[in-house]
Amino acid sequence: MEMSVARAEDVLIRRPTIADWGRILEILEQANFHHIGGAEMPSFPLADCFVAENVGRVIGVAGYRVLSRTTAKTTLLAVDPEHRAGGRVGERLQRARMDHLRALGIRTLTTNADDPRVILWYERRFGYRRTGARVPKVESFGRGDAEEWTTLELDLSMPATARNRRKRRAV
Ligand SMILES: CC(C)(COP(=O)(O)OP(=O)(O)OC[C@H]1O[C@@H](n2cnc3c(N)ncnc32)[C@H](O)[C@@H]1OP(=O)(O)O)[C@@H](O)C(=O)NCCC(=O)NCCS
Predict the structure, then answer these.
(1) Domain for residue 78, yes or no?
(2) pLDDT digits (tens, 9 = 90+) for 11-63
(3) Where are the strands (E) in the chain, listed by range?
(4) Quick check: CB of 91 below 6 Å from ligand 1?
(5) Is 5 within a domain?
(6) From ligand 1's centre to the CA of 83, what distance in Å?
(7) CB of 115 closer than 6 angstroms to any ligand 1 atom
(8) Is 118 in the pocket of ligand 1 (CB under 6 A)?
(9) Quick check: is 1 in a domain?
(10) CA distance linking residue 127 with residue 62, whole number of Å
């Protein structure tokens, strides 16, 4: 079957159901993120996830964990490689979890990433900053060529425009 990147208008961001679990695991596995229950990701509750669906098929997943009244952490984000870097599926999933957490009153969002291109994507597209922390991986998870996570932080209480202005002044 010939595959092509999903058109933005055909992609729906929604909450998953248990019926999506098998497909979610398949997508996580493509990023080596499927070791749920292990030391890196002890749990991945569906209630704290969004999925992207393209004409009836799940093509991406994003999770989060609320840590306190004002702080949260993103958990896993992965898009089916067939649909990466084209339809902005990852951006829409990321915005869905950011919007949800902001509406809950979360102000500080922490994210760990292990891919230099993805780190730049978080910084440029969403306004994250590196905290300076690097967290060693405790088991095989994510990229095989990276032994640690780079910690990023986003101030969700600030509108994106103010964040961008602050960034431009800093350059
Ligand atoms: C990160 C990820 C979810 C982005 O999904 P996506 O649908 O491709 O995202 P978008 O189309 O919204 O944006 C594409 C971005 O991906 C990055 N990208 C493109 N090709 C890439 C590649 N081969 N490898 C890594 N990142 C790439 C680029 O930075 C691009 O951003 P830019 O347009 O500003 O240059 C997806 O690349 C993925 O599943 N990666 C593997 C798992 C991962 O690293 N997840 C993040 C964990 S914190």
Answers:
(1) yes
(2) 999 999 999 999 999 999 999 999 999 999 999 999 999 999 999 999 999 99
(3) 11-14, 49-54, 57-66, 71-79, 108-113, 129-136, 148-155
(4) yes
(5) no
(6) 10
(7) yes
(8) yes
(9) no
(10) 18
**Looking at residue 157, which CATH number applies to its domain?**
3.40.630.30
Q: How far is the CA of 154 from the centre of ligand 1 (A)?
A: 18
112 close to 84: Cβ distance less than 8 angstroms: no
Strand partners, 39: none
> What are the distances in angstroms from CA 124 to CA 26, 45, 69?
29, 29, 27
Answer whether 78 contacts ligand 1 (Cβ < 6 A).
yes
Torsion of CA 129, 132, 133, 137, to 10 degrees: 80
pTM for the whole thing?
0.92
Residues 6+ apart with CB under 8 A from 82: 3, 4, 5, 59
